[in-house]
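User: Need the bound-state model for beta-D-glucopyranose:
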Amino acid sequence: MIPIDLSNKKALVTGSSSGLGAQIAKYLAKAGAQVAIHYHKEEKEAQDIANDIMKEQTKVDIFQADISDITQVEKLFKEINEKMGGLDILVNNAGIDGKRVYCVDSDPAEWENVIKINLFGPYYCAKEALKIMIPQKSGVIIQITSVHEFIPWSGYSAYCCSKSALSMLTKTLAQEVADDNIRVISVAPGAIATPINEKVWKNPLGLTDLENKIPMKRVGKSEEVANLVVFLTSDLASYITGTTIPIDGGMLIYPDFRHGG
Ligand code: BGC
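Assistant: Bound-state model below.
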């Protein structure tokens, strides 16, 4: 049997009060990691996820912070270090897609807000996590990007730009810390059924339109993304760094070309 064992690993998953983040936190815990749940506003949901995890695992900590604010992020990591005594895994998952609006009509403040949460947030968290990981000479940082680090998406220019830039942050950080035994990897999900896109997949027309963009003809499950994150954070992935692993049912392989060019 090939083992995946994250026991003795301490992991923080940002935005883990719902959706992908919650599932990732649960699966890291299932693999043995001591998990920190982070939320911004959904305190009750964060507590529910922690209770769920505690059915199998004894220790789960919950932390609140607005990751787009460096002062709050510094405080968050100080608290994590004090409470958990280190950090081995950071999953930069928290993010928003923002309101769908063409660039020409967009509100610069809303555009900036998406970039602050999706790009500055992971940058601040990575910066603070590395202050812990570099001295201990080990760690893994996973950045949850999106297929939209590659695929343009009309009406979501800030989201696409944030994810594309986050992918470059992954590569640059990976280069900076590879010889400190720290790996930095992007995971780029396609359409995964979570609250962020439920308006689309819960509507039959929206679902069909979405499935037509996916060669595997189905939206993904958050468990499938969580499995990938567990693998990438484990020693089984010890030679993977500075790259993006898409998990998208084939969305990136130009499905319209199935029927000829
Ligand atoms: C978005 C989803 C969307 C998917 C595929 C993700 O990054 O969050 O809303 O369904 O990309 O377009």
